[in-house]
Amino acid sequence: MVAEEGSVVEVKDLLARFTTDVIGTCAFGIECSSLKDPNAEFRVMGKKFLVEQRHNRLVIAFMASFVDLARKMGLKQTPDDIEAFFMRIVRETVEYREKNNIRRNDFMDMLIDLKNKKLMKSDHGDELTNLSLEEIAAQAFVFFNAGFETSSTTLGFTLYELAQNQEIQDKARKEVLEKLEKYSGELSYECMKEMHYLEQILSETLRMYTVLPILNRMALEDYVVPGNPKYVIKKNMQILIPAGAIHRDERYYPNPNTFNPDNFSHDKVTERDSVLFLPFGEGPRNCIGLRFGKMQALVGLALLLKNFRFSVCQQTQIPLTYSKETFLISTDKGIYLRVEKN
Asked: Where in the cell is it found (predicted)?
C-alpha cells in the first residue's frame, strides 16, 4: 500500500506482476493473481524462463545460428518444467472451453479456431493443416513472452525517466486527466488513441531503453551495399541489426542520451525513415505482440499517472546498471522510486 506521504516502491517487479496478470487473462483466459501473490505459479514460471537458461551462451548462440542442425540434435531452449507447465495450462484451457462451449473472443479462441475449423488453401494451392495442441501452446508461449516482460520493463524505465523529469510527468498527467474527463472517466480505446503525448513518452522510452537491442534476420536475396560494391550480403546470410545503437545515434536523434518525448512529435516522426526506430522490429517478422504490448503499457501508464506521482529517492540508482543474465535489457538491482498518491 502507498501512504499519502509516499512510500519507496521497487516498481520493476510490481509491473512485471501486473503485465503477467494481463497477459494471462488475455492470452490464456485465466486469473493469474500475480499482483496479490508474488509467488503465483504463472509469475514464477515466466520469471524462470528469463533468468534460468537451459544452456550456456555458447550453446544458445549455436542454436540461433544453426537452427536446423540444433533441431536435429534435439536441442531445446526452454527448460522441461516450463514447457510442461505451459502445455498443461493450454491443454486444460482448450479442453474446458471445448467441453463447455465457452468463447471469450481472446487470443486463445483464435488459436482454438485454427485447431478445429477447416482452413483455406494457401496461395500455392496447398492444403493448410490445422494447429496441433503443441503448436497452440507454442504460439501462446511466444505471445506471453512477447508481452509480459517487455511491457513491464518498458513501463519501469518510463517511470524511472518521469521521476527524473517532473515537467514531462506533469504534462503527461494533464493529458491523461483531460482525456478521461472528455470520455466520462472511461479508459476506452478511443480515449487512449487521443493520448498522443503519452505515446510519445512511451516511444522515447523504447528508443533509450530498447528492450531487444539486437535483431537477427536472414537475407532473402543478394544485396550489394550502396557505395561499397565489394561488400555483398549473400542470400540466406544471417544478419544482426543493432537497433539499440541506431536509437542512440546522434545523426538521427540529437542529444541521444537525454530523455525527450519531442523526438516523437508528428513532425519529427514523418521526417525520419521508419527503419530508424526498431523497438518491435520491422516488416512481416516484427513483434507478434506489438499492438497489444503498446496498448497494455499505455493503459498501465495512464492509470498510474492518474493515481500516483513518482519521484526519485535515496535508493534510486542513477545511472542504472544492467543485468548480464538475461537476453533483454533489464536492470540488475531493480528500480526504486518514491510513490505518492495524487
From this structure: Endoplasmic reticulum membrane; Microsome membrane
